[in-house]
Amino acid sequence: MSRPPVTIIGAGCAGLSLAATLPQHTANPVIVRGHPSAAEVQPHIWGFWEMDWLTDAAKLSRASWPMWEFSAPGHRVIRHVSDIHPYHALLSSDWLSDCRKKAQTTTFDNDDIAEQHLPLDDKTDIVFDSRPPQLDEPFMKQHFLGWEVYSKTPVFEAGIARLMDFNTDQSRGIHFIYLLPFDAHTALVESTMFSFTPEADSWYEKAITTYLLEQFSLTEFTVDRTEKGCIPMAFPARPHSSYPAIGSNSGAIRPSSGYAFTFIQKQVATLARQFAGTPDISDIHVPHPHRRRDLLMDAIFLNVLKHAPSLAPNLFMTIAQALRGDELARFMSGIAGPAIIGKIIYAMPKQLFLRAALRICLHALVARFKGPVS
Ligand SMILES: Cc1cc2nc3c(=O)[nH]c(=O)nc-3n(C[C@H](O)[C@H](O)[C@H](O)COP(=O)(O)OP(=O)(O)OC[C@H]3O[C@@H](n4cnc5c(N)ncnc54)[C@H](O)[C@@H]3O)c2cc1C
């Protein structure tokens, strides 16, 4: 009997990562449908902490840092070190072109899917849908613009990534600078906001220019690359498709942080393994990208940020202070055990978080009896 084809809708991170992984486990033909993604055509950086499911990505990454830091006004700088879970920066186009090379059993059909449902040849066809989810406004977003800058004068401290520096303008929302120094001359400098409304490009550009001046006395530099994005910090519904979702369509973007690459790779690897042997198709299930307890913590944390955004720098600094480097890496990658979670809960202001938990319970109750509330 011929093996049923696996159709993947969307040629982005999840779609191509799955197409690259399936041949390790099955000879089923694979069809990827959709034009090359923005991440392939106009590359940006995917940051992640090294984990055992990310060894290929770590090998391909452009740079890594065993040290990273968090800063905010009124706090001493918090520096983390982790030799086992260094932070990596992978260029999206490097990853996606490598996926295309590994996807030997795949036919690429560059046309997008216009229709909601594919005309399937056979009931045994298997379809995974990675089209981005639709979200009802309003929801909090992580929006950002980053410049890869080059300075003739060596100014950057190459061994240390600055993951969050809140020494920035907080007047429009929760705002920090993310700075990845590739060497003393070159760095990705990103102005990142958590708020409901994205800003004009000029706003982030001014924030980057001001930061480079204030922190490095840098006025003379060139911009070699720009990247920008707007990532939902929310819990997506999927009204537009009935196919099993993968990647961000399945909620892989961690609502409280915007990180998704690590969760997508873990999900795709687990999904592809299920194809080994000759499985019954009905036994193949897309794993949830996040644990329920992590999503509950995210919901409470986001509710706190929504109601008290001015406290965000203190809260992020408190979390960074409470954890060691390895612990933070595990927490951000969704594998924190009870001890790490206990440390975070213990460090957080109890009343603030209890009130947020109560608000969430109340909303859930109202939604149950009256339909969804915003
Ligand atoms: C600029 C930027 C920086 C980011 N940085 C990080 C980071 O540092 N670390 C991290 O973990 N995450 C990061 N993320 C978040 C996350 O990793 C990405 O959003 C990731 O690309 C999600 O992968 P995906 O496959 O789910 O979605 P996508 O990569 O968006 O893929 C979805 C695909 O579906 C296609 N599509 C849409 N409609 C159709 C259709 N009708 N027919 C066929 N195809 C269709 C799209 O063209 C796209 O190729 C970043 C995101 C952005 C945008």
What is the element layout, followed by pairings?
Elements: E1 6-11, H1 13-21, E2 30-36, H2 38-41, E3 45-49, H3 55-60, E4 63-65, E5 67-71, E6 78-81, E7 87-91, H4 92-102, E8 106-109, E9 126-129, E10 141-150, E11 160-165, E12 174-181, E13 186-195, H5 201-216, E14 222-232, H6 261-273, H7 292-307, H8 312-322, H9 325-332, H10 338-347, H11 350-370
- First and last CA, distance: 50 Å
What multimeric state do the chains show? single chain
**Structural domain count:** 3
Unreliably modeled segments? none
Dominant shape: globular
User: Helices and strands, in N-to-C order?
Assistant: EHEHEHEEEEHEEEEEEHEHHHHHH
Radius of gyration in whole Å, from Cα? 21 Å
Helix content: 25-40%
The CATH superfamily of the largest domain is known as: FAD/NAD(P)-binding domain
Biggest beta-sheet profile: 7 strands, mixed
Total count of helical runs of at least 4 residues: 11
**Physical arrangement of strands within the biggest beta sheet:** 6-5-11-12-13-10-14
| Alpha-beta content class | alpha/beta
Strand content: 15-25%
The CATH architecture of the largest domain would be 3-Layer(bba) Sandwich
Strands, count: 14
